[in-house]
Amino acid sequence: MKQYLRLLPAVHELQKDPRFETLKKKFDLHEMQLTEFLQQEVGSLRKSLLAEEALIEKATPDFTGQIFKSAEIHIQIWQEDRLERVINGTGTVLHTNLGRSRLSDAAIAHVVRTAENYSNLEYQLVAGKRGSRHQIIEDLVVQATGAEAAMVVNNNAAAVFLILSALAKKQEVIVSRGQLVEIGGSFRVSSIMEESGARLVEVGTTNKTHLVDYEQAITEETAMMMKVHTSNFKMIGFTETVETAKLVELTGKHQHVIFYEDLGSGALYDFKQHGIGDEPLVREVIESGVDLVSFSGDKLLGGPQAGLIAGKKELVERLKKHQLARVLRVDKMTLAAMEETLKSYLAGAEKIAELPTIRDIIRPAEDIKVQAQLFIRNLQSKSSNYHSELQESTSQIGGGTMPGVEIPTYIAAITHKRLSAAQLSLCLRKVKPAIVSRIQEDQVCIDFRTINFSELDDLLAGFIACQ
After folding, report:
1. Do the beta carbons of residue 328 and residue 161 sit within 8 Å?
2. Which of 2, 14, 113, 444 is found 20 to 30 A from 294 (Cα to Cα)?
């Protein structure tokens, strides 16, 4: 293969080739940028020749044409969106791998306005002086939760880390062994506590912790009692935990001890009224007398990724002034999305139901059935390669939220004449927009709980492309 190295074109020769200008115009590239792509292709081909890996079909190969063809393919791939739209056919509303909560139309519009313009992110318009981004939505969180004060950081893990670092560093934090959970990405509550500098004091056993366990663990070195909502798993059977109200009463007897509850998912909407789960409302926890709570913005709240902290004013002010607050702060677009999301909660039931997360979780199964039937009819009329049938099934909430809770739904269970379920599922993930399904009993299943009516045409087109 080494004899062909002298046939490799020089980059300056490639720049003179008419195809150079053609690619520049097609992909709207700067000359230097296109040159770099071609240099990479020449280098890759040279490496293959030296390793004797290249396939030579002619005595005088057209390396120039091969380089331009390969460069065009790689440029096309490079220009595609890395973060791309996906149709979620799994029925899992808060699918962590697929971005969790979808934002409301109002939140999206406010994000766009904020992104394309200057804003008063840290500027007091009336006073004409520097302001604080903490003030942007604090009043909205306070109104929605009933807390004295509030702040926002970039996710709930950050909220946990900030609270422990700022209020319990080098001091003891008492936690039940049954609440030392590990969630997605190998994130462990115990590990984040250690990283914060707080000293973990475990009480009780894995399945049972009593009030006396907490009482006996309190010392002069105790800074905090922490209750962790085990949102991503559930223990049943011979178990016992201590109610928040009793822990509030206990810490009230020790002025130097803070009671902090990490709610994880954090619901502002009562799903229990629909018979869905038993998640405590943030407002209820605040009213029970806790000093601080933290919860996620992109789970049951239905907003952007964020960690919300609410509670006693004196403690929240200490958190705002801590050096980590700047490290963990959110940007203007997150604040814009969170602002509109919280306004929906304060506007009443009708606006709350417009939040995609709330809407999809409480959506009646009969509505989903109508949508599934419409899709099945359209698919059968467009292609004879598929067999589709309507089936009753269940959806999950997802995002480590409400483990074990399944909501009645309807799915389209689909088989292909030639393709296996795995092959069809793979094909659907390759179309644009990609379609993510679930496989059950060698059938590709589409759960319409997480599919909008506006997505039906694209969903149908994806199946037709795979026929």
Report:
1. yes
2. 113
User: How many helices and strands, by DSSP H and E, does the chain display?
Assistant: 19, 17
- Of the candidates 240, 201, 206, the one whose C-alpha atom is nearest the C-alpha of residue 217 is 201
Tens of pLDDT, residue by residue over 158-174, are 999 999 999 999 999 99
Question: How do residues 38-53 score in pLDDT, each as one tens digit?
Answer: 999 999 999 988 887 7
What values do phi and psi take at 413, rounded to 5?
-95, 120
Query: How far does CA 360 lie from the centroid of its chain?
Result: 16
CA distance 29 to 34: 6
Q: Is 178 helix (H, G, I), strand (E, B) or coil?
A: helix
Q: Which residues make beta-bridge pairs with 172?
A: 199, 222
Residue 435 confidence class, pLDDT cut points 50, 70, 90: very high
Task: State in Å, rounded, how far the first CA of the chain is from the last one.
Answer: 42
Exposure pattern of 64-100 as b/e (b: 16+ CB <10 Å)? beebbebbbeebeeeeeeeeeeebbbbbbbbbbebeb
- Rounded to whole angstroms, how far apart are CA atoms 159 and 146? 19
What is d(CA 187, CA 178) in angstroms, rounded to the nearest whole number?
16
Task: Spell out the residues 6+ positions from residue 309 whose beta carbon is closer than 8 angstroms to its own.
Answer: 150, 151, 152, 153, 159, 162, 163, 292, 293, 294, 316, 319
Rounded CA Rg of the chain: 28
